[in-house]
Amino acid sequence: MEISRHWRLQQQRYGLLGEKCNHCGEKLFPPRDVCPECTQDSQELYRFSGKGEVYSYSKVFDPPAGYEGTAPYTMALVKLEEGPLVTAQLTDVDNDIVEIGMLVEMVTRKLREDGNRGMLVYGYKFRPRLK
Amino acid sequence: MSTIQDVFVIGTGQTAVGEHWGISLRHLAWKAVKQALESSGLERPDAIFVGNILAPRISQQHNLGTLLADFCGFRGVEAITVEASGASGGAAVRQAMLALRSGEIGTALVVGVEKMTDKVGPEVTAALAAGADSDWELVQGVTAPAMAALIMRRYMHDYGVHRDEFSDFALNAHYNAQANVDAMFRNGLDLKQYVQAGIVASPVNIFDGAPDADGAAALVLSSEPGELRPGLSVRVASSSLVTHTLALHDRRDVLSFEAARLSAERAFQQAGITPDQIDLAELYDRFSIYAVLSLEACGFARRGEGWRLARNSGVGRNGQLPISTFGGLTARGNPGGATGVYQMVEVTRQLAGMAQDNQVAGAKWGLAQCLGSSGATAVTHILDGTNRN
Ligand SMILES: [Zn+2]
Q1: C-alpha radius of gyration, chain A, whole number
Q2: Per residue in B68-110, pLDDT tens?
């Protein structure tokens, strides 16, 4: 049912592939058809570095269907070096030592598992930056 | 500017909020509709606007407009469903306002109805989370409490506020709900219970969040004044719906509810009054941090200071600005797409002096505001109870 929907977003989800606005230079992630800053509609692809820092976070104890397996997990708003915020889970980290400002980097991980259909969705998560 | 058609609330109805497992969605809606029609004396509305979020997903039922028009005995009447996530109820009122102000219709029935307890646990959590951006938030495993938690954590960090400072909102709501026979939590709450409560999504605990449940509320609106009680009519002085970024991460400023700010600003402008003239506000306190940011967005508190307003009973019934006067979402409960209509019913009853033990003495101006998708949509209505014959 949802396979095509997730397939379409593979590039962006595996490689943090966003856009740069040809008019105002704004860097956009996730990609859009219309730049929210200048409302023009011409962008070129832009690959984000995957480096950022934790802007805010929450340890989630009450997960939605499809995410029960990994709960509790830490959701975060990550501020990318290039500017945008992204919503993502943190991984490879002790949930109890996360703090605002923690330096993180993108990795590709399994996002959700649909028990009934056996479908797996992969995408970005963030882990503490390795020195 | 040309003169805008005045609109009045001439009838209200609501069911208890809770688990109505014994009756179906249409019966639940009818209970509230029947009450509202009877209190208004209206027999047949010109149009029906239904606020709902989850029926297509939980009850496998689309087209509630027609379902309820048919079921309530109004075949032939115009009717549609309005959906704007948590703001659906307010958005339904807004659509009725547009229709009434245009002069195309003279009376409207607004129904908010939600039946979510037919499904349980993770499925409902997932359904309610779907107001977030599906491709870029939902897929990461966010929930409604997690979104609120991300905002609350940053708020605490930027303004140096301890999590226990948010307790006053829950304590006030639970206190007020005790006298509301339609509220879900009527046992009160003390600070010890709040501090020891389990965490849903840190730092949000179970009392920072509203219980999601079933409920229905209805309003009869008319372009002719009608007396709710002898000599008492309530006018809808303003109506405004504003959108902002759907995804939280797309906001330049995560700590400002821009849609709520603009919506309130336009509502105050329409009504020709200022925030200090408001006698009570029913805000979208689905999470305590939302109450804080709503207070700031509406101009009741300065940025970063909304939490202070709740100190020393400042938001209590006798405080500087009473909020959640019947328990709010926090303790009356959050029946999804019906919530915005409950808020309108509550404000109307306050201004008409029909709030009984929950009455804010001498209330003349009231504000109702609901939010959808973590503040992405905001609907604000200001009600005027000054016109007493
Ligand atoms: Zn641009």
Answers
A1: 16
A2: 999 999 999 999 999 999 999 999 999 999 999 999 999 999 9
Comparing CB atoms, the residue among A36, A63, A84 nearest residue B122 is: A63
Q: Nearest-CA distance from A130 to chain B in Å? A: 23
Q: Is residue B116 part of a domain?
A: yes
Instruction: Find the closest chain A residue to B245 by CA distance.
Output: A36
Domain count, chain B: 1
pLDDT per position as a tens digit, B198-255: 999 999 999 999 999 999 999 999 999 998 988 889 999 999 999 999 999 999 999 9
Q: Which domain holds residue B62?
A: 8-121+213-222
ipTM of the predicted structure? 0.95
- Interval between CA B16 and ligand 1 midpoint (Å): 49
Say if CB B383 and CB B6 are below 8 A apart: no
Residue B48 belongs to some domain of the structure: yes
Which residue of chain A has the CA closest to B204? A58
pLDDT value of position B389: 45
Chain A positions touching B126 (Cβ under 8 A) are 64-66
Cα three-residue angle A36-B337-B4, rounded to 5 degrees:
70
Would the pTM count as exceeding 0.90? yes
Do B122 and A121 make contact, defined as CB atoms within 8 angstroms?
no
Quick check: helix, strand or coil at residue A60? strand
Amino acid, single-letter form, for residue B162: H
- Kindly state whether B158 is in contact with chain A, defined as any CB-CB distance less than 8 angstroms: no
Map out the domains of chain A as residue ranges: 3-128
CATH number where B30 lies:
3.40.47.10
Q: How many CB atoms lie within 10 A of CB A103?
A: 14
Asked if residue B52 is part of any domain, the answer here is: yes
Q: Is residue B37 part of a domain?
A: yes
Angstroms from B91 CA to nearest CA on chain A: 24
